[in-house]
């Protein structure tokens, strides 16, 4: 039964996880500090108490955690693992790329790995180089792994459910700057949507802006402050990516700007531009990308601002591309 | 016949099946029917045979790329293994897995792994599932001595210990980590000491004797069934072939291979009445399987992208 609740982004994820644990008895939820402490960001608070030993803490052993998720998923469980920071995923990339992504394909469909990895990424003031990276492109390069990046509370709720219900490995990349933000009306208890799709955040005629992740607030601010008439497509699902929606918009606007917090080289923005260009759609101006400079991420706030895309950078790109 | 004798003959037959399967694969590889990297387990058959005869239906095996014999001992028909290596439609995975990465869950064989040590954490997950699914499953993961130097194996052993999970960790210590002596890569050559340090009961045994392996695995299963968690078995064995087909084995000291060949599990049983008969039966079975595998159609290239997602 569908109803609404006032929830923060973190609260929406918590509600979705509770529903998964409640309605899907094969779900398990584990990770570092997720059970008794309720997670370092508090996202899993109360779940251990409510769902008992299906919610448990693990050693600080990402390889063991993710490998255990792969094995449990192969046996029909539906594990949900929290990797505290996306940067920590790298110490266990084998279990994601070589193991989870291969289970279905290599077994010719005899096995599957219906597991969800929840993590969070991106820079926030005072974060160091190993707690700031935007790593979605690494995952998007890997066939066999689904990837989503919700920003709004409703999407966080819906996508968490869709990810857990999906029968393939899904990485849901959250953002810690959003967890404790303002509460929003979230519809809970509705049907579980299939994976995929996008959200149209602004509608306009002169440029198509494709973006994902928390930087969408800078994109929206830039669109609003410049007054540019833009379609703003939020790619809440990056795999599967809604290429058709982007092409349909660009056919109308004739212009493309892609904005992501990740650095430019090898970023998924390059893939979006390539798909649009390869489609042969006629463009009124050269496509543009805005992302972090190709750099390590410094701790100092003023240095990080110099590396990461800002509202002003996005605004300048919007004006330039439509000018 | 004494039950013990019966068991010895059954083990002997199983070991011959693996040996002949591996020899056949070698011939197919040299003839060019099988291509690419292939790792044989000649000399190490007793570990797979001793362990697998103790496993029950719900139990799950996670092996390494040296896993053809583990699959066979688990009950996978040789025709399906050979067809997999020959990239035939009738292979266990239609050729998607190949020599080093196939699985056959319907036989409790959850797969080889081509990443050293990576099967251990996955086996822990299979054991974790058993805690909730009522299957009574015990997960057995086998890896070599070299895998002990992969961090993930230690992580897996610790997680299994911390959560008291039903896992049997079997380390086939064949003295060489790929091409390098394990004793040059560790300070403490007692690999089981690492299990002890993690609070896991450990046993070191003669891995060329299937009865010793079976006894240890049986005890490990009982331990797991009683909720007392994982066991570590260090089984000493020797591979009497290269790390891969084509390995010149120049790293072996003079005379070592000859000595190992005298002590390999089949050589030890040469005196048994029924030795030749077991070999003959195995040869006939594998020859027929090979013929059928070779006659099967190749997997259709138009299916190459199937099974990527649900």
UniProtKB/TrEMBL annotation, chain A:
Pfam families: Transket_pyr, Transketolase_C
Keyword annotations from UniProtKB, A to Z: Oxidoreductase, Thiamine pyrophosphate
SMART domains xref list: Transket_pyr
InterPro entries named among the record's database cross-references: THDP-binding (IPR029061), Transketo_C/PFOR_II (IPR009014), Transketolase-like_Pyr-bd (IPR005475), Transketolase_C (IPR033248)
Domain Transketolase-like pyrimidine-binding: 7-181
Domain of life: Bacteria
UniProt cofactor(s): thiamine diphosphate
Listed PANTHER family: PYRUVATE DEHYDROGENASE E1 COMPONENT BETA SUBUNIT, PYRUVATE DEHYDROGENASE E1 COMPONENT SUBUNIT BETA
Protein name, per record: Acetoin dehydrogenase
UniProt organism field: Paractinoplanes bogorensis
């Amino acid at each position: 039964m569908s109803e609404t609740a006032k929830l923060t982004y973190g609260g929406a994820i918590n509600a979705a996880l509770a529903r998964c644990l409640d309605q899907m008895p094969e779900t398990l939820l584990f990770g570092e500090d997720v059970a008794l402490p309720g997670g370092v960001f508090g996202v899993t608070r109360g779940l251990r108490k409510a769902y008992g030993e299906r919610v448990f803490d693990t050693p600080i052993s990402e390889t063991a955690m993710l490998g255990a998720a792969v094995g449990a998923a192969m046996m029909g469980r539906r594990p949900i693992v929290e990797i505290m920071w996306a940067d920590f995923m790298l110490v266990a990339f084998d279990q994601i790329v070589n193991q989870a992504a291969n289970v279905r394909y290599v077994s010719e469909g005899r096995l599957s790995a219906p597991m969800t990895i929840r993590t969070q990424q991106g820079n926030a003031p005072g974060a160091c180089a190993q707690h700031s990276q935007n790593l979605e492109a690494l995952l998007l390069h890997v066939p066999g792994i689904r990837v989503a990046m919700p920003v709004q509370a409703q999407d966080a709720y819906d996508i968490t459910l869709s990810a857990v219900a999906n029968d393939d490995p899904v990485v849901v990349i959250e953002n810690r700057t959003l967890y404790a933000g303002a509460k929003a009306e979230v519809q809970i208890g509705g049907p579980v949507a299939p994976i995929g799709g996008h959200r149209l955040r602004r509608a306009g005629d002169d440029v198509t802006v494709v973006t994902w992740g928390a930087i969408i607030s800078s994109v929206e601010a830039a669109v609003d402050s410049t007054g540019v008439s833009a379609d703003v497509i939020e790619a809440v699902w990056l795999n599967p990516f809604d290429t058709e929606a982007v092409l349909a918009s660009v056919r109308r606007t004739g212009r493309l700007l892609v904005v992501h917090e990740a650095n430019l080289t090898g970023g998924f923005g390059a893939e979006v531009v390539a798909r649009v260009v390869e489609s042969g759609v006629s463009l009124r101006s050269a496509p543009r990308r805005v992302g972090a400079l190709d750099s390590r991420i410094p701790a100092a706030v003023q240095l990080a601002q110099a590396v990461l895309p800002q509202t002003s950078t996005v605004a300048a790109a919007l004006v330039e591309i439509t000018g | 016949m004494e039950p013990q004798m019966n068991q010895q003959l059954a083990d002997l037959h199983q070991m011959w099946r693996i040996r002949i399967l591996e020899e056949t694969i070698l011939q197919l590889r040299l003839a060019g029917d099988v291509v690419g990297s292939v790792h044989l387990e000649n000399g190490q058959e007793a570990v797979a045979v001793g362990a697998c005869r103790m496993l029950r239906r719900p139990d799950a095996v996670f092996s390494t790329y040296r896993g053809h014999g583990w699959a066979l001992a688990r009950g996978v028909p040789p025709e399906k293994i050979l067809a997999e290596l020959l990239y035939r439609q009738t292979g266990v995975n239609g050729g998607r897995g190949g020599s080093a990465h196939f699985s056959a869950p319907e036989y409790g064989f959850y797969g080889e792994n081509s990443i050293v040590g990576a099967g251990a954490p996955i086996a822990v997950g299979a054991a974790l599932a058993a805690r909730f699914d009522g299957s009574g499953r015990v997960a057995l993961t086998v890896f070599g001595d070299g895998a002990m130097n992969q961090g993930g194996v230690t992580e897996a052993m610790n997680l299994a210990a911390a959560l008291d999970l039903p896992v049997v960790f079997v380390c086939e210590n064949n003295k060489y980590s790929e091409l390098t002596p394990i004793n040059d890569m560790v300070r403490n050559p007692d690999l089981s000491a690492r299990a002890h340090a993690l609070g896991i009961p450990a046993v070191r045994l003669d891995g060329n004797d299937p009865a010793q392996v079976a006894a240890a695995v049986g005890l490990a299963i009982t331990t797991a069934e009683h909720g007392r968690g994982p066991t570590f078995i260090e089984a000493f064995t020797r591979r009497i072939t290269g790390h891969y087909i084509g390995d010149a084995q120049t790293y072996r000291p003079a005379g070592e291979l000859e000595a190992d060949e005298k002590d390999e599990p089949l050589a030890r049983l040469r005196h048994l009445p029924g030795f030749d008969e077991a070999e003959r039966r195995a040869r006939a079975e594998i020859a027929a399987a090979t013929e059928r595998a070779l006659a099967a159609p190749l997997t259709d290239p138009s299916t190459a992208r199937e099974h990527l997602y649900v």
